[in-house]
Structures are given as C-alpha cells and as structure tokens.
Design goal:
Number of domains: 2
Helix content: 40-55%
Largest sheet: 4 strands, mixed
Number of strands: 10
CATH architecture of the largest domain: Alpha-Beta Barrel
Bound molecules: ligand V47, iron/sulfur cluster
CATH topology of the largest domain: TIM Barrel
Structural class: alpha/beta
Oligomer: single chain
Shape: globular
Length: 375
C-alpha cells in the first residue's frame, strides 16, 4: 500500500508514527504494545474510527450482531467488596436478594414460548453456594428450556464455587460442562495490572486466576468472553497491558468469542468521586480495542451499559455486536446509575437501531451462528 493510498483513505495529515501504525493496520499486521499506547495518546478520533472501521469491515462487512437473551441474577449477596460495585449486598441487608431454585425456574418458565437462545447467569459470590448448587440450577433451567445456551458465572464466581466443592479448576469446569454449562461470560476481568486491581478490587480472584480459568475452560471445550473495566483510575498503558494479556491467551487457545469494554458507571459505589469518562473516550476505547485485538472476531458494545445511541455510533468505531433483547432482567447497570432502569429491546427495535446507521442486522446465537439474517 503506497503512502498516497493511505492518505486518500485517511484524508488527513498525520504524524509519521501514526502513519506507520495506519500502514500496519491497513496491511493487516499486528500492532505493538507501544503503538497501542500511541493510538490512545495521539490518535485523533476520526483517524481511530477510520482505522477501526477498516478492521471491522474486513472481518464482518456491515454485518452487526445481536441475540435474543435474558439474564438471571441469582443473588446480589457477595463476600467481596469491589470499590466500583453498586450491586453488592450482605446477608440481611434490606435490598439483598437470593432467589430460591423455584424462583429461578419460574423466571425460566416465562421464556418457554419465546424464541430466546441464551440465558446469561451472573451474580454475587454467595458464601453458601457451591458448584453443585449451581450445576443443579443449570440442569433445572435446561429441563424448562432444553435448547437454551447457558452462558454463566464469571471466573470470580467459578473460582469460589469450584474451591468450595473442593475440586481442581479443571475438574470443576468439566463437571459444570456435564451439568450443562455452555460458555462463560467475560466479567471479573476488571483490570489486570496488579497495582490497579489491588486498589479497586483487592479481594477478588487475581489476574493469574482469571486468565487460568479462561485458559482451562478453553482447553476443556468451554468458550468464553472477555471484558475490561475502564474509565476509573487505570492508565492507557494499563488498558493496553490488559488487552495484550488477552491477545496472548487468544493466540494460544482461540477460545474467546468477543471482547466487551465495560465503562465504569459511578452511582452508588465507593469510586463515585472519580466521575465517568466522556462518550469521546468510549469511542476511542472501542476503536483502539478493535485495532489492537486482531485475533478477536468480535467487539461488543453492551447497550444497557453504554446506552442505545452510543452503541449505534460505536458501530462506526470498530464494534460489530450490541448484545441482546435483555428483557429487563439485569440490575447491574441500573444500580450503577444508567438512565435506562428497565433495559429491554424487542428484536425489531434492535433491527431498527442497526438499520438506522445503515448496517445489516444479523440475529446470532451465543457462538455467532446466524439465526436470522435481516439484510
Ligand atoms: O465484572 C460492576 C462490571 C461486570 C460496575 O460476557 C461495572 O457477554 C461498570 O461481565 N460500572 C459483570 N461496570 C458484567 C459482565 C458482562 C456484561 C455484559 C455482557 C457480558 C458478556 C458480560 O460488571 C463485572 C464488572 O466489571 N461492573 N460494577 C460499575 N459500577
Ligand atoms: Fe462481588 Fe462482583 Fe460486586 Fe465484586 S463486582 S463485589 S465480585 S458482585
């Protein structure tokens, strides 16, 4: 690719170091950690969007994915006290909840006649519940919804429930797979730099444990997602370090489906004083993520967290997935202050949202098999 071509693609005068990065991205070459940091620090927003969109369209064209899903949050009782968490409660607190198995089955029954393909189950780390309790829960849900894909439990929940059942991580994951666990969501990753992790979530599973659980899951045939919690006290170098660890693991296992940047939301938690980063920062972050994580097929903008309009704009900044219908079944972000307290979208609304920005809506299942093509 000649410089002239690059200039015609980028339509702007750019610094030599950014031009070198642009050449690499256009030639489908991997960028380095240092180059990732330069993108955050020096890349003008339109430049980042253009490069991220090149990667996005090379992988997916205009295709934009969503699914029909609902969440079950079995409890908000948690042994940990992450500083950014607005959700955690202790046994006996007035607004703590812990659903019985019957209540969970009742939630599943509501979806019997609906074309949902995925249930996303996450919650607090409950001191009294082990792997067999949750394995039994999965089995009961699948009796009601035999075809549902169960994407369940962050690595932090898994770490605790497997140890409580006195099993090794590998045996615990194999056992959960036998119970019906199909994949693992991306939560609990937060930020991998141990210094920052210590300051925002001192007690929970370490970076090494999070990576080990996902690696072992991939090895035993359980795919997973990955997240980052950004926009608090981390630096750009910390974000790139986080993605670099994920990129290395993906090179090894190829077990990650999608990367979901989670924006720190400030209400009702112990980091509220920090405030929130701007939408510009969100778009920059989606774009750099798309450029850096060359071996991740998908980048997701989780609409209940980022909002519908920003999710739409993010589709021009590297994002190709906006998550699903949700049906007002998650409280994590409403408790952390997002405006939409009852997140729900019909699949028609998701289709319209995607079409409004001239992309092609594709209903997918959790593993990105096409369920419905709306082109
Ligand atoms: O790990 C908690 C985050 C995560 C706050 O895999 C917060 O498809 C922002 O992982 N501000 C759980 N974030 C949610 C999660 C997730 C969400 C959507 C899709 C998928 C997927 C996974 O929520 C936690 C933590 O990083 N979180 N509190 C907060 N105040
Ligand atoms: Fe518990 Fe998860 Fe909240 Fe941390 S983020 S306190 S592990 S519910």
């Amino acid at each position: 690719m000649s410089n002239n071509n690059i200039e015609s693609i980028l339509l702007t005068e750019i610094k030599a170091e950014l031009k070198d990065i642009a050449k690499k991205v256009i030639n489908n070459d991997r960028i380095t950690v240092e180059e990732g940091i330069i993108l955050y620090e020096k890349g003008e927003l339109g430049f980042l969007g253009t490069l991220a969109n090149i990667v996005r369209e090379r992988k997916h064209g205009h295709n934009t994915y969503f699914n029909r899903n609902f969440h079950i949050e079995p409890t908000n009782i948690c042994i940990y006290n992450c500083k950014f968490c607005s959700y955690v409660r202790k046994i006996g607190d007035v607004d703590a909840w812990e659903y019985s198995l019957e209540q969970i089955i009742d939630i599943a029954k509501k979806y019997k006649e609906q074309a949902v393909t995925e249930v996303h189950i996450v919650g607090g780390v409950h001191p009294k519940r082990d792997l067999h309790y949750y394995g039994n829960m999965i089995q009961e849900i699948k009796k009601v919804l035999p075809d549902i894909h169960v994407k369940a439990f962050t690595a932090v929940e898994l770490d605790f429930m497997i140890k409580k059942a006195k099993m090794s991580i590998k045996d615990g994951l194999i056992k959960l797979k036998e119970y019906g666990l199909d994949s693992i969501p991306g939560g609990g990753a937060e930020i991998f730099n141990p210094e920052i992790r210590k300051q925002v979530c001192d007690e929970k599973s370490s970076t090494e444990m999070w990576l080990n659980i996902h690696k072992t899951a991939h090895q035993v045939g359980i795919p997973s997602n990955a997240t980052i919690l950004y926009g608090h006290i981390e630096s750009y170098a910390d974000r790139i370090d986080h993605m670099n660890k994920l990129r290395d693991l993906q090179d090894e296992t190829n077990g990650f489906n999608t990367y979901i940047p989670l924006k720190f939301r400030k209400a009702n938690n112990n980091l509220s004083y920090i405030g929130e980063v701007s939408t510009i920062e969100d778009l920059k972050n989606y774009a750099v993520s798309r450029i850096f994580l060359d071996n991740f097929d998908h980048i997701k903008a989780y609409w209940p967290m980022i909002g519908k309009e920003t999710a739409q704009i993010a589709l021009s900044f590297g994002v190709d997935d906006i998550d699903g219908t949700i049906d007002d079944t998650t409280k994590i972000y409403s408790m952390a202050g997002v405006e939409d307290k009852t997140p729900t979208m019909t699949s028609q609304e998701l289709v319209n949202l995607i079409k409004e920005v001239n992309r092609i809506p594709i209903e997918r299942d959790t593993l990105y098999n096409v369920v419905n093509d709306f082109s």
